[in-house]
Design goal:
324 residues, alpha/beta, Rossmann fold, four-stranded antiparallel β-sheet, binds zinc ion
Amino acid sequence: MIDCEPASCPICGGQRTAPYCDAPDRFALSSERLYAIQHCLQCGMIYLNPRPPEAKSGQFYEHADYLPFASLTAKRSALSRLYEFVRRANLRWKRQVIANFWQQNAGRLPLATCHLLDVGCGTGEFLMEMKNAGWTVEGLERDERAAAWAREQHQIPVAAGGVEQLAASTQQYDLITLWHVLEHLYHPGQVLEMIVKRLRDNGWLLVAVPNIAGLDARVYKSNWIALDAPRHVSHFSLESLSRLASKHGLTLRWWRQLPLDAFFNAFMSEKLIAQRQGKGYLWPLRWLRAFAVACASYVGGSHTPFSYAAYGASLVCFFEKSRR
Ligand SMILES: [Zn+2]
């Protein structure tokens, strides 16, 4: 068993905390080990504390069912097929939300000249979607197998390596995307700092994260699937994410939710509860509850003429590089 070490707040560096909840590792339920998630008494940021040492964190990603690499595995369960369906729908939605945003806010450049970098691109399906929409695309992926897959299957330039590689690069991008990456990073502020340097003037950063202030996170608390301890080390809300970004030269301009995350989170959280309680016969009730929670978070994260609520399951935020 890996010993954890204390962490300070990833936003303000504070060390005074109060408990938020204790969460299991969903891939190692039999160990019955729980990880403490705390909130910073100085700024309210919620984060994993203590946490595994960064050098040893890689082994928590080696589980065969870890979904970002589902497309690399031949065996498909019903659940991973459902995940695949959700992922394809999500890809179309991601392309559409960027197209809408680009048209309204950044449409000064013809798309064919726009350069996109996806950090933590996995097996490259999102980049493929964007390449087909006319973007010049590039990827960066820590997992060498996933990077090789993207290069070979999609003929997309994907470098294998961590975000620290950005420090050595001189390439400038119009848009950099971090889809569900920031919550995994041990030093999110340093990474944003590196990213800002790789953005052109008037460049944009898209950050997508699970929303700890979402309705589903509040309902499921320690069983909320997106706590994903100990892989997720930071848990952002719109407020804490924009505060972190503004410390590193980025201004929040526009945000939406990933609608399908509401459903994915609710059903997966119910599955986690069932696994922890060992009560399979409650499935109809669980599905009903999951559906109700998902619909509520979807509405809570929707933009309506009356509200600009940030209670959805996830946040997709566009940040503009501030002029310094
Ligand atoms: Zn803090």
